[in-house]
Amino acid sequence: MTNKKISVTIPAYNEQDTLQRVVEQAITEVSKLSNRVEILLVDDGSTDRTGSVIASLTHTYPRVVRSISHPKNRGFSAAMNTCYVNADGDYIFLGPADGQFDFSEVASFVRKMAGHDIVVGYRTYNEETVRRKINSFFFHLLARALFGIRLKEFSSCIMYTRNVRDTIHVQADSYACLFLPELMYRSIQKGYAIGEVPIHFYVRKGGKQKGTNIRMIVKTIYEMLRFKVELIRSTHTA
């Protein structure tokens, strides 16, 4: 058991069918790793009963669960960024609300944190749809080409220290899936030690898949290219 406080951050958008089960599993499993645990839920403007589920969880677990709500849906990176800037643990973990990740695997992240500033999960067992896997392949291909990120994967689960959060400002705050590529790029530029651990990803336990939304795909490609242009301009003006 570590003496570090662990924050588990979970962004959620219309996850009424899975969120309670996910949070209760996270509390059970992460409490085995530390006596100081925080679960931070970010409701990204859900239109279903996600808000009610979160209210019930904060009432049932007032010393562990806290929440932040966006008045309207702001998107993937915006929800992650809200998690990022508001968690106060020594180790901060970002995980999904859809039940695809088994929170017992957080233990492998904590073990790997020894000697690392960031630990990234890569999927060795993946029950996601073929379409989702294809999208993920091209997402990582583009991010590696644009930003030189030489990791097996960087789009699912991640743990980082509070020092990383305090020293890296992530600009991505929109509908696109740019938050994690930007965080990885800036962390590499800072010279932070990044470790990797294998994880399992299971079939979604309820709700609707969001990563294959065509609007999100187009927006992500646009935002990646825009960020690359900004990096080039900043290099030329430095």
UniProtKB/TrEMBL annotation:
Pfam annotation, one family: Glycos_transf_2
Domain of life: Bacteria
Coiled coil: none
GO molecular function terms attached to this record: undecaprenyl-phosphate 4-deoxy-4-formamido-L-arabinose transferase activity
Domain Glycosyltransferase 2-like: 7-162
GO CC list: plasma membrane
The keyword Calcium is assigned to this record: no
GO BP of this protein: lipopolysaccharide biosynthetic process
Keyword terms: Cell membrane, Glycosyltransferase, Lipopolysaccharide biosynthesis, Membrane, Transferase, Transmembrane, Transmembrane helix
PANTHER family for this protein: UNDECAPRENYL-PHOSPHATE 4-DEOXY-4-FORMAMIDO-L-ARABINOSE TRANSFERASE (PTHR48090:SF3), UNDECAPRENYL-PHOSPHATE 4-DEOXY-4-FORMAMIDO-L-ARABINOSE TRANSFERASE-RELATED (PTHR48090)
Protein name, UniProt field: Glycosyltransferase 2-like domain-containing protein
Source organism (scientific name): Candidatus Roizmanbacteria bacterium RIFCSPLOWO2_01_FULL_45_11
